[in-house]
Amino acid sequence: MFKYSLIVLLIFMCSAFAKAQSPQSTQQIKRKTYKATRVDDAPTIDGKPFEEFWDAIPRGGNFVMVEPTNGQPERDTHRTEFKIAYDDNALYVAGYLYDSDPSQIFRQFSQRDEIFAQADLFGFFVNTYNNQINQTRFFATSANALGDAVSENGREDFSFNVVFQSETSIDEQGWFVEMRIPYRTLRFTETPVQDWSFQIFRRIRHLNEDYSYNYIDITQGNSSQYDALLTGVENINPPLRLNLYPFASVVYDTFEGESTTDFAAGMDLKYGINDAFTLDATLIPDFSQVAFDQVQLNLGPFEQLFGENRAFFAEGTDLFQKGDIFFSRRIGQTPSGFRNIDRFEDEDIIDNPDKSQLLNAVKVTGRNRNGLGIGFLNAITSKTEATLFNNVTEESRKVTTEPLTNYNVLVLDQQYGSNSSISYVNASTWRSGNFTDANVTAIVSNHNDKELRNNYRGEFKVSNRFTPDGGVVGFSTEARWRQTSGNWRGRVDHFFQDKNWDPNDLGRNFRNNFHQVNGEIQFNQFTPVGAFNSYSIELRGSHRRSADPDFHIRSNARVAARFRTRERNSFGADVGASTRNLNRFESRIDGLNVRYAPNVNSGAFISTDYRKKFAIDIRAGYFELFGDPEVGYNYNIAPRYRFSDKFILIYRFDWGKNDQRISYVTLTDDGETSILSRRDTHTVENSVSGTFNFDNRRALSLSFRNFWSRAKFSRDFEELQSDGRTIPSDFELEEGDNPDANFNVWNLDLAYRWRFAPGSEATLLYRNNIFNFDNQGRIAFEDSLSDLFDQSIRHNLSLRVSYFFDVNRAVNWFKSA
């Protein structure tokens, strides 16, 4: 306990030192004020804000550069102006983005939320709570693509999707934007006078310059703290927020001579419970067109995890990330009893589903006028059964591998002060029957001082697992201080997890029973110097120990530098070193470590200017162990070519080898000894992605990936000793056993997407998949690819149509009819 107190004391001593070195007072943020104008009629949203409607509305202007020269006034040749109006239904925003040479305006076509294409960008960010923390961001590009995101403390989440209108145009003076943002896309309190703030953002791609209406000091705090004030919005009532998203899909699948056709229909809905909170529900969910997972050969001790591709669980989930105890891919995951089915000697498993079926899911999110954010998510998956067949009696029976299961998450997040909050998070899993239940609770504090110079973060988490044999309680803590202003910035943090910490029923965590101290000092050059727009140099170090029993696991240090030139080329390098490492998981025996020698590692990258038609990313890495034959090296090359403003193609090649790594093979029959040997792995991955945009509503996209990896184990086996070292073993594999691996997977998706109405989309998707896994550890890539094409290929063709239906608009239409 003394050492933990010492660490906490060190954190606050560092903080005090930083404050002592900084001026005691800081310039108050200057916030411009713009008054929105109430109107009786709505403008025509056509991207040409020159009609009489806009004449009486005052202009805002005098923008300031964000990057590269922070604080510099806008160019006379590239002035930016805007106007904001409102009525009882929506906000109306006009943007005037002047350019002395409109032929230079980048205008690459892209689809929704793909706003970082090579096109100029306009952003309207509104904070309906005026708390300098949360923003709802609406974007438009010069090629008329639109995007939306929610932001907390400047961190954007583009999984947020609402229905708003945006149109753009270009003429001899520059380019122009008109937006209609219905109130149903915002959450605000029902008061006579609204207290809002906002920001206008402009990116001029060919000049490599960003501007904002209210000055953003990039050396201090974060961008959401620098909003201007939006006044004049009065006497509006939050509308009925009920949106329906009915959908229908048909899927044709053929594999190994068998074909199936499935039809599905269902509906998602969004309902505004009150002025601040929204209910989302998916009824009869359909995930037939979810993107494929990036599957790899997995020889490690941990399960392989993938990102969330299901829209319902990816959209608007920022609150649920608090405490990092919720991982949505657990919902509908592989049944807990999938690999441990009790069967009789004469039984075969003839059906064993690898996923649990999601029945329904709901979530409620929002924040009230006092800054209290509430998030609640509940999902139910159906009972999953495997089918066993007895070859003697010729009878079949079913075994439950996952019962009916309920998952829920509750988040209470109270904001206060200057970008600070304290959160309570609870995640629980309930499985009916004789299965494990679980509950995890987290308290999270995130505090920023008034001067915007220091951030303090603390977490305390408790996991409870209720097994048929009893309960297990685990703990996890985190304490962190980091500097958030100035060119020089420091960070110190400490993590602790006891040996019983296990949030994995609804979260993800692979390592426990340790405590670790990390430190970092970084120098950032935010403004142009010489040939560089910006650069950073950082030194990081960490020290990890086992908690019970106490011993040193590993320490490491790393120095890294990254540079960005005025021409928007980037390059960097890093080098690091690590002490010997006691790996506590490779042995597959609790308490028995595998000892790896000290190592040195390095890497470098180059990324050229994406504004050019041709650009390329190159990365390479190398590491080796001292006094040990293990060595590893890898590189990847990713060229991209923009054939036109409508068509871009990106190819990526990854190559890697790791030779002579001491690795787990198996356990002896008594389970008391871990057998290891040296392992060589070789990996090659090819991927292609491309999009042809007919316009900003129709696109044909290609996604292809072929991943190959082989692993070859030495037959000079070794036995792991209690000190982590190994000795030669006379162990021999039984006939038919072979730890070598040859893994090859091919995925191809070809999709046509048509956004035929606001919020409505039709997608025609063709995909095929081939997979092969065997024990050819010496096979070459070309031969493995040939074997892959000998396997059966799965073809899948699907059509999905979803439609956006605004109930409030329909009600108003019937009233006026």
Give an account of the 3D structure.
This protein has 817 residues and is mainly beta. The protein has a 24-stranded antiparallel beta barrel. Strands 1, 3, 6, 7, 8, 9, 12, 13 and 14 form a 9-stranded mixed beta sheet that branches. A 5-stranded mixed beta sheet has the order 2-4-5-11-10, with no helix packed on it. The chain is globular. The model is unreliable at 1-27 (pLDDT under 50).
**Helix content range of the residues, please?**
under 10%
Q: Report the average pLDDT across residues.
A: 90
Unreliable runs, pLDDT <50, ≥5 residues? Answer: 1-27
> Mind telling me the C-alpha Rg?
29 Å
**What's the total number of strands?**
46
Q: Which topology of the domain at 30-231 does CATH recognise?
A: Immunoglobulin-like
Overall geometric form: globular
**N-to-C span:** 73 Å
- Major β-sheet annotation: 24 strands, antiparallel, barrel
Supply the key terms.
817 residues, mainly beta, Immunoglobulin-like, 24-stranded antiparallel barrel, nine-stranded mixed sheet, 46 strands, globular
Give a quick precis of the structure.
With 817 residues, the protein is mainly beta. It is built from 4 helices and 46 strands. It starts with a helix and ends with a helix.
SSE topology:
Elements: H1 2-21, E1 33-35, E2 37-38, E3 64-67, E4 80-86, E5 90-98, E6 121-127, E7 134-141, E8 146-152, E9 155-157, E10 165-171, E11 174-182, E12 196-204, E13 209-212, E14 228-231, E15 242-255, E16 258-272, E17 277-283, H2 311-314, E18 347-351, E19 358-367, E20 372-381, E21 384-390, E22 396-402, E23 405-416, E24 420-431, E25 437-448, E26 454-467, E27 470-483, E28 488-497, E29 514-525, E30 532-546, E31 551-565, E32 570-578, E33 581-583, E34 594-596, E35 599-607, E36 614-625, E37 631-642, E38 647-667, E39 674-693, E40 698-713, E41 718-720, E42 726-728, E43 741-757, E44 760-774, H3 781-788, E45 794-802, E46 805-806, H4 807-816
Parallel strand pairs: 1-14, 2-4
Antiparallel strand pairs: 3-13, 4-5, 5-11, 6-7, 6-12, 7-8, 8-9, 10-11, 12-13, 12-14, 15-16, 15-45, 15-46, 16-17, 17-19, 18-21, 19-20, 20-23, 21-22, 23-24, 24-25, 25-26, 26-27, 27-28, 28-29, 29-30, 30-31, 31-32, 32-35, 33-34, 35-36, 36-37, 37-38, 38-39, 39-40, 39-41, 40-43, 41-42, 43-44, 44-45
